[in-house]
Write a structure and sequence with these properties.
This protein has about 375 residues and is an alpha/beta fold. The protein is built from 14 helices and 12 strands. The structure holds pyridoxal-5'-phosphate.
Length: about 375
């Protein structure tokens, strides 16, 4: 079935193709060309990070984080169960055991009050995911991490340019990972970045990203030849993609304003319906400036969630559920995950749906979505 209104449609700001053509004709299409440099500079300046390095994906940025932290077999890493696979897999690849933490029912971020009970002598890192671009409770998380000498790696795939108590997400942990996948606010199709807030990690990060060589130092003229100095892989984004990304980052304020308008319109138009139908809308605590990454509904039951997806589908509108709890997946079960372990994650995994949300969503399209949602009565949804 073809959807009249898709869930996501990557939007262009206008200068992408010109920049891409320029990157190709400049003759440096591989990684760390001029456009990569421009992206690094913009992100470092805005965020105030020690170093930002573009990567092929957020997944690869997380894999680099696991390498930088020297994660070893048997180490434990605390991750929310309600997240994308890569948050856990990047560490599992190094032999770590993911320890799943439940989420708060309001923001759907990891429940910081449960951290202390999950920490053991083997815990090496906590990986907060800022779900929907709304900050985790970073003060509490950093306090627990400091007390136990555990690293914090932020999975900030949703939260570029969002803030917690005035400070940008991605600048709290020693390391953070960003995504520029086509489903994210700022995109180049596939891409990511690693944010390094600890200057001591920068030199090794450059080496890991460059196949274990000191090529970055060579390019800067700091060594006269480059050679193999450490383990590593190829985590550089092509400068062609960096050119596309550069165009988007330059216009992030425009993208943010558009997404804010769409998000606030959903919230205003659906609040009455949601209250009457016992549906939970996104919660943004007053000390958080969110990224306007998505608009979700937490329905009162699985039946109501499936019923609304089907109702919207019948009108040509695509809405989608989100994470299947990691602790209930076959891999999660292999690490000891069992039903009942993370009750809020299990409920939200069954009851959450996301409405169409993209930069080019027109007012007329959004009004259609709102009308269709408002027609839906949860009590009409029956188990099938
Ligand atoms: C999208 C996403 C990722 C993975 O991003 P890629 O760039 O596709 O590797 C990781 N974590 C979260 C929370 C995500 O939403």
């Amino acid at each position: 079935m073809l959807y009249r209104i898709p869930f996501n449609r990557p939007g262009l700001v206008g200068s992408e193709l010109r920049y891409v053509a320029d990157a190709i004709t400049q003759g440096h299409a591989a990684g760390d060309g001029a456009y990569t440099g421009r992206c690094h500079a913009m992100l470092e300046k805005t965020l105030g990070a020690a170093r930002v390095l573009l990567t092929t994906s957020c997944t690869h940025a997380l894999e680099m984080a696991a390498l930088l932290l020297d994660i070893q077999p048997g180490d434990e890493v605390i991750v929310p169960s309600f997240t994308f696979v890569s948050t856990a897999n990047a560490f599992v690849l190094r032999g770590a055991k993911p320890v799943f933490i439940d989420i708060r029912p309001d923001t759907l971020n990891l429940d910081e009050s449960r951290l202390e009970e999950l920490i053991t002598l083997r815990t090496k890192a906590i990986v907060p995911v800022h779900y929907a671009g709304v900050a985790c409770e970073m003060d509490d998380i950093l306090q627990v991490a400091r007390r136990h000498g555990v690293a914090v790696v932020e999975d900030n795939a949703h939260g570029l340019f969002a803030r917690y108590k005035g400070r940008y997400l991605g600048t709290f942990g020693a390391i953070a990972a960003q995504s520029f996948h086509e489903t994210k606010n700022v995109t180049c199709g596939e891409g990511g970045a690693i944010i390094l807030n600890d200057p001591e990690l920068v030199e090794r990060a450059e080496i890991l990203r460059e196949k274990g060589t000191n090529r970055s130092k060579f390019y800067r003229g700091q060594v006269d030849k480059y050679t193999w100095v450490d383990i590593g892989s190829s985590y550089l984004m092509s400068d062609i993609l960096a050119a596309f990304l550069c165009a988007q980052i330059e216009r992030y304020e425009q993208i943010a304003a558009t997404r804010r308008r769409i998000w606030e319109n959903y919230a205003a138009e659906l609040s009455g319906w949601a209250a009457a139908q016992d549906v939970q809308l996104p919660c943004v605590p007053p000390h958080c400036e969110q990224a306007y990454h998505m608009f979700y509904l937490v329905m009162p039951s699985l039946q109501a969630r499936q019923g609304l997806i089907e109702h919207l589908r019948s009108k040509g509108i695509l809405s989608v559920f989100h994470y299947v709890p990691l602790h209930l997946s076959p891999m999660g079960a292999a690490f000891g995950g069992r039903p009942g372990q993370c009750p809020t994650t299990e409920r939200v995994g069954e009851c959450l749906l996301r409405l169409p949300f993209y930069n080019d969503l027109s007012s007329a399209e959004q009004a259609d979505v709102v009308d269709a949602v408002r027609q839906f009565e949860c009590r009409d949804a029956v188990a099938r």
